[in-house]
Write a structure and sequence with these properties.
Two copies of one chain form a homodimer.
Chain A: E1 5-10, H1 18-34, E2 39-42, H2 59-75, E3 83-91, E4 103-111, E5 114-120, H3 132-135, E6 144-147, E7 150-156, E8 176-181, H4 189-204, E9 207-212, E10 214-217, E11 220-223, E12 227-229, E13 235-238, E14 245-250, H5 263-281, E15 287-290, H6 295-308, E16 313-317, H7 325-338, E17 341-344, H8 348-357, H9 362-384, E18 387-388, H10 394-399, H11 420-433, H12 439-443, H13 463-475, H14 480-485, H15 490-502, H16 504-507
Parallel strand pairs in A: 1-2, 2-3, 7-8, 8-9, 15-16, 15-18, 16-17
Antiparallel strand pairs in A: 1-14, 3-4, 4-5, 6-7, 9-12, 10-11, 12-13
Chain lengths: ~525, ~525
């Protein structure tokens, strides 16, 4: 295996776009062949995109995926020395115990016009955001092939994560383990993947080639960062983060130090990727969002500009009598800094008309202002086709500090999985690249500005406190008792837990947004609405 | 086993309400004891409510459930001859392959102060709306106990549905199989459950006691309809539908014919149960909804009144210049027939103010009318605490024929899983009980009334055609080709399939509603938003 050259095709597929995904795979095959590689490895379900959800239940989709694979097989005669290892959903012949799933999550090995064999994923993740036990029939067999004298095994993602996984039977049977991954970004995940791969490499004395997808797919962001370890668990190749790449290496390549950007940089780029691919994969012309002068909308605007460019982003400022003097200034400064267009819309007369026509309680009057703004923004979206971004953060979504059909309105919520304290950190981080977010938006006390002298901390504890408490309740599946044990006052603990529970019905209608944590709202955390347990 | 009397405690638990659930279980134990029963069987997870979703990941909740079980065990000395078979989530001692689930979905057998044993569900459904592979560790052992000379086996729901299930090892080992169920309502499910139970009874020569839950829990409706079959697969007991009941029978009881209401009656009562329990289990004081004079809002109003009574339901009519002459009359007649209060709110001046302040395309102008109505309704909800019902039906939700943050706004959508053609059938059915829905609402052509002379069929095929096509695409996971094979024109097939796909992002933000079909929108059908496959 001395001179064996292996390439990784780190591509950004779109779920269901079989033609364009096939084109990306073919392009990477040509590049790999040009590099002299004898193997090119792609990510999990690269041909169909990942995750495909209940598309896996559609027989016609599985047949179309099979056709794409056959096309690739025909085309592979162009690269006669190349072993192509590519993921695709494969129609299962065996029946599944649940009478529901009809597909395997598979990898095919293709060479010079022939399919050498297929491997079906054996460990199907069915936790956090994953539903693979719903959508796939687990495989039962291992698959190995040879390239010259090198014995090569194939695994798919979760297969190498499980301590009881088939990867722990490789010792002595394989020299290299190729792993196709659809491993979504999470804070700290890049390091964790390497720890897992090293554990396998060391215990089994195999080299590990870890190919990941790249790109946003709904709420998931695949960050790329493919890598390879030699038999001694030393990294010999590292792919780039957040971009497509065909990279290659020989198994005898020298060690390269794992080089990862700081966490805030990775998180920022992940969010940018999520916004960009949601817009582009849905063929949306641009983005519109409300600019309040506050930190959340400022960070969302900066993410939007980094994602699709200033000329496709429009801000609308909608001040009211309760807006602070600086709100308009901060919004204007932000728009200037980012180079986006800013429209000013007044809500005063519409608000007055609602107040004239309806009896409004204090709460109703606060909410109606937020909802008038949503109507103005959605009117722009209807006029132009632009995507409305919802600017709420994880902290306020957690405790229901938002107006449903008001500021929560929008098709995509970039900060949905970002706690308020992280929003501040990301704003400061983004300003180190170039100063775009006004310091005043960062430093002033946060406010919804829906009544005179309103501030978030009239209703909520300081965000440092709140976010730490929410982490116990959400990330750790913790309880009020856990909060009390951690030193929080009992009444505060109960109040935060209750707010979290009472907002479940609002979250059930929330826009999707990019996931950066293990327990994200939406499909990452599934709780009943009618629920008597605090 | 000649004189063995068995009771079924068909209760309506609320997820997480351990105290009140325990009280319901204890009451049924007392009633069963009074009847002379030696066994009382409850539904799946009766102590905790079902399904509990990710509450199963909270250790403190599992400990609290265990405490409730211990309390029941202490209390059971009051009924010393009674074997209590009750479902609860049990903290698992074994680790699970996925490093995530920590609970079993279990049944405990309690007698006179002692827990005789526990059984852990072995087959975990993870399809349609079920996520049990996510939340539970599967059991591996069977459990039997004896009552006098009768050998009794315990199974939980899915265990008896799988052809490879443990229930097919019972022959010769058990006389009676007790099955704890959390089997949600679906059209035709009542008959299907009997078919499954008969198959087991006949092949294994065992009696089957089938206890189901009753009551609405978010989108699921448990219809009760518990039953028992003797060793010859003849029905000897049938519980009531849609109400709590403690019923009992002897194993030698004579055959009773299965007696089920017609499907429309069951479906109506299921929807009523869903609305009632969503309101009551969330402690909501009442319901508000917009009355347009159309069929959907009329049926929703009738469901609301049947669920919680006329005095807790309020209608708001919000006519516009595009409303037909009869719309107000129909809304008023409906309100009169139902005995609910009807408020009239004008949208004209608010609409004019929006038109004055904003540039509105035709689409934006249509949507803004729908959204102004949502703001008026939500203002009432904010003022009063009433639940806003969203009145959209499955057909329009499927093809996106609705305004997000407009007519789709609301906390619960009673017709979410009801096709338009079924809405008409249900309206006619309800009128056979008492004539409440105006004939004109049933007979006039459906219209959103957002522009002059607008009718649904300007944008959509006839609902008979549309619904039949949607059934192929949704219920059968079918394709455009399947529609063409079924005889629909290719362009129409492509148009409907495209509309269905393009509305995915709206559905992702839709209110929950009661499920009556196998493939319901929401957690019953999980498709990506960014998706290139039609």
């Amino acid at each position: 295996m001395q001179n064996l050259r292996i390439a990784i095709g780190q591509i950004n597929p779109t779920v269901g776009e079989l033609d364009s995904n096939l084109a990306r795979v073919s392009k990477a095959c040509a590049e790999a062949s040009e590099m002299g590689a004898e193997i090119v490895l792609f990510g999990e379900l690269a041909l169909s995109g990942y995750p495909i959800g209940d598309l896996a239940l559609r027989r016609d989709f599985l047949e179309s995926s099979e056709q794409a694979l056959q096309q690739l097989t025909s085309d592979s005669t162009q690269w006669p020395n190349l072993n192509i290892v590519v993921g695709y959903p494969r129609l299962a012949t065996e029946s599944h115990a649940n009478d529901w799933a009809i597909a395997h999550n598979s990898a095919a090995v293709i060479k010079n016009g022939t399919i050498l064999g297929t491997y079906d994923k054996r460990h199907l993740p069915n936790y956090t955001v994953f539903d693979e036990w719903r959508n796939y029939v687990p495989g039962t067999e291992s698959f190995e092939f040879e390239v010259g004298e090198t014995r090569v095994a194939v695994m798919i993602c979760e297969d190498i994560w499980r301590p009881q996984g088939p990867v722990y039977d490789l010792s002595g049977l394989a020299d290299v383990c190729l792993v196709l991954n659809g491993s979504p970004f999470e804070k700290g995940k890049n390091e964790l993947r390497r720890t897992i791969a090293e554990r396998v490499s060391k215990s089994q004395k195999v080299a590990i080639v870890y190919a990941n997808l790249v790109g946003g797919q709904d709420d998931l962001i695949f960050d790329g960062d493919s890598f390879a370890l030699n038999k001694n668990a030393s990294q010999i190749f590292q792919g780039s983060l957040f971009e497509e790449q065909t990279g290659s290496f020989e198994m005898t390549s020298p060690t390269v130090q794992a080089k990862l950007p700081i966490q805030l940089s990775r998180t920022w780029d992940a969010l940018v990727q999520g916004v960009r691919d949601y817009v582009d994969k849905n063929s949306i012309p641009g983005i519109v969002l409300g600019l309040s002068g506050g930190i959340d909308s400022a960070v969302c605007a900066a993410l939007a500009v980094d994602a699709i460019g200033a000329q496709r982003v429009k801000g609308i400022a909608m001040p009211s009598v309760y807006s602070s003097d600086s709100s308009m200034t901060d919004a204007e400064t932000l728009a200037d800094n980012l180079g986006i267009s800013l429209e000013i819309a007044q809500i005063k007369d519409i608000h007055a008309q609602f107040q004239h026509d309806l009896d409004l309680s204090d709460l109703a009057d606060e909410n109606i202002q937020s909802r008038i703004r949503a109507l103005i923004l959605m009117a722009d979206s209807n006029n132009s086709g632009r995507l409305l971004l919802s600017t709420g953060n994880k902290s306020e979504i957690a405790v229901g500090y938002s107006t449903i059909y008001g500021d929560s309105a929008g098709g995509y919520a970039p900060l949905k999985d970002v706690y308020k304290t992280e929003v501040y950190a990301l704003a400061n981080f983004r300003n180190t690249r170039s100063e775009v977010i006004p310091q005043n938006s960062i430093s002033k006390p946060p406010s919804a500005e829906l009544r005179p002298d309103q501030h978030d901390q009239q209703s909520l504890p300081d965000y440092e406190v709140l976010d730490a408490m929410l982490e116990v309740l959400i990330e750790n599946h913790g309880s009020i008792d856990d909060l009390i044990t951690a030193g929080y006052p009992a009444d505060l603990a109960a109040d935060v837990a209750k707010k979290l529970k009472m907002a479940e019905w609002k979250r059930a209608q929330g826009a999707i947004g990019p996931r950066i944590s293990k327990v994200s709202f939406g499909r990452g955390r599934r709780l009943p609405i009618a629920n008597g347990y605090l």
